[in-house]
Design brief:
The chain is α+β, with helices and mostly antiparallel strands. The chain has nine helices and four strands, in the order H-E-H-H-E-E-E-H-H-H-H-H-H. Strands 1-4 form a two-stranded parallel sheet. The longest helix has 19 residues, at 118-136. The chain starts with a helix and ends in a 6-residue tail after the last helix.
């Protein structure tokens, strides 16, 4: 069999734009590769495993019309909820970071305020990768830490442990998140 998008994204990024437009059955096939870092393809006469260690980035509008935060949304609450629930909870549990990006105003688009340069960001990422290499002794990233690694490298003091436990209750976090 030929490698699909998930295997082609191995050691890279898989970006799915307008993720709520994908059939739910397709999205659900991402769960196991995200968990196992590999994809298994089984047919009647063979079974193949391919690597699938990737960063998954998904994007979608907040509602069907895309204007939920612009005070001109034409969607009902039922439509918004149905739209936002197209991606299952178990798949969302496997996503590490959520960002809400609002549309920029015309003035914000046309103004340029100097930010950090790509070169500077690249240097910070390089230094972080070097620290991780020294820490783990292999080219492993934090997202691939095992429970044993977390216990060894992420010791929490009492105050931090309380914040974590309170956050689990407050935000309804699962063990996976």
């Amino acid at each position: 069999p030929k490698a699909g998008e998930i295997s082609l994204a191995h050691n890279g990024v898989l970006f799915l734009d307008e993720v709520t437009e994908f059939p739910r059955s397709v999205l659900e096939t991402l769960r196991q590769p995200l968990e196992d870092k590999k994809i298994s393809i089984t047919r009647a006469d063979y079974r193949v495993e391919m690597p699938a260690n990737m960063i998954l980035i998904i994007a979608s509008n907040p509602c069907p019309c895309g204007n939920l935060f612009e005070n001109r949304c034409s969607c009902s609450m039922t439509q918004i909820q149905r739209y936002q629930h197209k991606v299952s909870g178990p798949l969302l549990d496997r996503i590490d970071l959520y960002l809400e990006i609002k549309k920029l105003k015309k003035e914000e688009l046309s103004s340029f305020e100097g930010g950090e340069s790509s070169k500077s960001i690249r240097e910070r990422v390089k230094l972080a990768r070097e620290r991780q290499f020294k820490r783990f002794g292999s080219y492993k990233v934090n997202g691939n830490m095992t429970p044993k690694d977390i216990k060894n490298y992420c010791e929490l003091d009492d105050k931090s442990r309380k914040i974590l436990i309170d956050s689990i209750d407050l935000f309804g976090l699962s063990g996976r998140s």
